[in-house]
Design goal:
Distance between the termini: 67 Å
Strand content: 25-35%
Largest sheet: 7 strands, antiparallel
Mean pLDDT: 83
Radius of gyration: 20 Å
Length: 206
C-alpha cells in the first residue's frame, strides 16, 4: 500500500485543452480587482488595473453542461487602455454579445426591451451571467496555449439553441429569456407589454 505522503505513483495531470471552435454554455464570474473610476461609473471595485495601466474585468467562465462541464476558462474584458480605444471597444462588443446571448436578444433587435437588455446598472449585473460562447486559444504568460472565451454566441448563430437548451423562449421569432434578465430589464419588458399588446403577446415578444 502506498504511503499517504508518497506521491511518486500518483497519476500525472493531463487536461487537454477544449478544442478551438467548441460552443459551450458558461457562467461568467467577475473577479474583483479593487479599481474604481467614478468618472467612468466603474464603482464597487469590480474593475482591475494592470501594471501597463490597462483597465479590464477579470472574467472566469465555468462550462455548465456537456463533455467539458465544470472546466474553467479565463479571459480579460477590456475597459480602457492608454494606447487607444481598441481595447475598450473590444470589451464593449464582448459584453454586448454576452448580454444578447444570455437574454436571447437577436443582435438586430432594436425594440425597447432589447435595448434595455443591453444596459447594465453596474458590473455586478455581469457576475453570474449565463451565455453561450465559442472557445478559442491564446498564449499565456509562459508562451503556452490556454483556452479562452472571446466570442459570445448569439441567437442568430445556428448552434445557439442547441447550446443554450430550453432556457430560452422567443422574441420576434428569435430565442429569448426575459425571466433571467436583471430587474431593470424585466421592468422594461413589462412596460413594453402594457404599451403595445398584440394578439395577447407583449411588444417584446412580437
Amino acid at each position: 500500500m502506498t504511503a499517504w505522503n508518497n506521491f511518486n505513483d500518483a497519476e500525472s495531470p493531463s487536461f487537454a485543452l477544449i478544442p478551438k471552435g467548441t460552443l459551450v454554455k458558461v457562467r461568467m464570474t467577475i473577479k474583483p480587482g479593487g479599481y474604481n473610476d467614478a468618472n467612468q461609473g466603474w464603482l464597487h471595485g469590480w474593475a482591475t488595473r494592470g501594471d501597463s495601466g490597462a483597465v479590464y474585468l477579470n472574467g472566469e467562465f465555468v462550462v455548465l453542461e456537456g463533455k467539458y462541464a465544470r472546466r474553467k476558462l479565463w479571459s480579460l474584458i477590456g475597459l480602457h487602455s492608454d494606447k487607444g480605444p481598441t481595447w475598450g471597444q473590444m470589451g464593449r462588443s464582448f459584453i454586448k454579445g454576452a448580454l444578447n446571448s444570455a437574454f436571447g436578444l437577436h443582435p438586430n433587435d432594436v425594440s425597447a426591451a432589447a435595448q434595455a437588455g443591453r444596459c447594465i446598472e453596474s458590473f455586478a449585473d455581469l457576475d453570474g451571467l449565463v451565455f453561450a460562447g465559442k472557445v478559442d486559444w491564446e498564449k499565456d504568460g509562459y508562451g503556452e496555449d490556454k483556452a479562452v472565451i472571446k466570442i459570445p454566441i448569439m441567437p442568430d448563430h445556428p448552434g445557439y439553441k442547441e447550446v443554450m437548451g430550453s432556457a430560452v423562449g422567443s422574441v420576434g421569432g428569435h430565442a429569448a429569456s426575459s425571466a433571467h434578465m436583471p430587474a431593470h430589464v424585466g421592468h422594461a419588458a413589462q412596460a413594453a407589454a402594457i404599451a403595445s399588446p398584440v394578439a395577447g403577446r407583449p411588444a417584446w415578444a412580437q
